[in-house]
Design goal:
Helices cover 21% and strands 30% of the residues. It is built from ten helices and 24 strands. The strands form seven sheets. Strands 1, 2, 3, 4, 5, 8, 10, 11 and 13 form a nine-stranded mixed beta sheet that branches. A hairpin with a 6-residue loop joins strand 17 (243-245) and strand 18. The longest helix is centred in the last third of the chain and has 21 residues, at 336-356. The chain starts with a strand and ends in a 15-residue tail after the last helix. The protein binds flavin-adenine dinucleotide. Flavin-adenine dinucleotide (FAD) binds next to helix 8. Flavin-adenine dinucleotide is lined by residues 226, 304, 323-325, 331, 334-338, 340, 389.
């Protein structure tokens, strides 16, 4: 169902869009619900659907003035810096957490209404977003249950007054000028869009495409299931190495663990049922291509959110960052711990030299390259750690090292 808030010469109302017409639910439900927000809060979408079926539409869509989909929302939470392309375009750093800011209802306009550039600024910019309309409220809602609280989705032009947005670290001033956020034309109810559906967001400026992103490109929240199994029967066919299955339908990593332990890292895909993630059924189903309960037992599993983040700086005075605090890679890179050990060796070596007075502080500060000595240490560290990950202790290890 496509739901709208609108006004006519008879006043404001709300309804369902059917083809090119609007069914006036305000009238047809005999004023039982004061507005669209009240209808959603009363969980009366079924009643609305039924009322909208009868007869013809009440107004041609072209003859009503569309209002913001929900003209009177209680809260408008906005999530910023969540698309990699937008972070790049606006010359910002990727942050470990998204930016959260608020909008006030008075900053909104309906579809087809002019958005207003305030005279204080020349830097009024478009920003296409997907609005998520929360229907049922709650507190301490689990991630798996979150989908059940979504009433629907809508387009949102989060018009931004850029210079005011950047006055301080708070974005609010640039996001709340009068009539700068366009909400609509309508919301599509969530029963038509399955949880985790891959959505594509396209923004056009005077007909020209200026923005295209899919929800799969969101930076925050790349979830993977990590599962360890213990083999009950030998399965040499699985492979003695780590294997990346670059299958666009389901990227997966297989890792040969020590003894009879094997690990799979399985990407959570749009369309996966969030309530089923990491259940035994879900895991065995995703592993079916390689293994079944006839051959192995599930040892442990977890859903991780993988990050790729690098600290802006690794040193401030006597404070030095190393390991995941300085740089984090998704586990399938197999570099997290190895790189952390390299950091520790690197730091110990340099700090020792600084303390002995054989390494002037200025050189230390500028040292971005690894000395050959360190590269060989990294090789040694890899050899020390390799047996932990590789069951083939006897197999020769090869490294490709690059001097910089
Ligand atoms: C599923 C998975 C698979 C992985 N597979 C691999 C792999 O195959 N190969 C590989 O090289 N790496 C892998 N990694 C990455 C690897 O585990 C990490 O890179 C490594 O553990 C980072 O070490 P660290 O010491 O820098 O940080 P951590 O191991 O995170 O250690 C930081 C410690 O600080 C503690 N801490 C945090 N805040 C505070 C505080 N305020 N006060 C006191 N203590 C605090 C934490 O509890 C933690 O114990 C994997 C990671 C995951 C999640």
């Amino acid at each position: 169902m496509k739901l709208v808030s609108f006004s006519t010469h008879e006043g404001p109302s709300f309804g369902v869009v059917r083809d090119d017409s609007v069914v006036d639910l305000g009238k047809r439900l005999n004023g039982r619900y004061s507005d669209l927000k009240a209808l959603i809060a009363a969980d009366a979408l079924g009643e609305a659907a039924q009322a909208a079926q009868a007869g013809k539409g009440d107004y041609p869509l072209s003859e009503v003035t569309l209002l913001p989909v929900i003209p009177n929302p209680e809260q408008i939470f906005c999530v910023g810096l969540n698309y990699a392309e937008h972070v790049k375009e606006t010359n910002r750093e990727t942050t470990e957490q998204p930016v959260i800011f608020m909008r006030v209802p008075a900053s909104q306009v309906g579809h087809g209404q002019p958005m207003l550039r305030p005279p204080e600024s020349q830097q009024f910019d478009y920003e296409g977003e997907i609005a998520v309309i929360i229907g049922r409220g709650g507190r301490r809602i689990t991630e798996a249950d979150a989908w059940n609280h979504i009433a629907g989705y809508a387009c949102y032009n989060d018009g931004s007054v850029r210079d005011w947005q950047r006055h301080t670290t708070q974005w609010g001033p640039g996001k709340n000028f009068y009539r700068t956020g366009a909400f609509g034309p309508w919301m599509v109810t969530s029963d038509e869009i399955e949880p985790n559906t891959l959505m594509t967001l396209v923004t056009r400026l005077n007909g020209q495409e200026v923005q295209r992103a899919t929800t799969h490109m969101l930076i925050h929240g790349k979830r993977w299931g990590v599962v360890d199994v213990l083999l009950d029967t030998p399965r040499p066919d699985l492979g003695d190495f780590s294997i990346q299955y670059c299958d666009p339908a389901r990227p997966t990593t297989y890792t040969r663990g020590p003894g009879n332990r094997r690990r799979w890292e399985i990407m959570v895909m749009p369309g996966d049922d969030a309530t089923q993630l990491a259940s035994r059924e879900w895991l065995w189903n995703k592993l079916a291509r390689w293994i079944s309960p006839a051959d192995a037992r599930l040892e442990r599993s977890a859903i991780y959110t993988f990050h790729s983040v690098v600290a802006n700086g690794w040193r401030r005075g006597r404070l030095l960052l190393a390991g995941d605090a300085a740089h984090q890679t998704p586990p399938f890179m197999g570099q997290g711990m190895a790189a952390g050990i390299r950091d520790a060796s690197n730091l110990a070596w340099k700090l020792g030299a600084v303390i002995r007075g054989t390494w002037p502080d200025s050189r230390h500060r500028g040292a971005g390259c690894q000395p050959p000595w360190l590269v060989s240490q990294m090789g040694s560290a890899c050899k020390v750690m390799a047996p932990v990950f590789n069951a083939r202790h006897d197999a020769p290890l090869t490294f490709t090292l690059r001097r910089c």
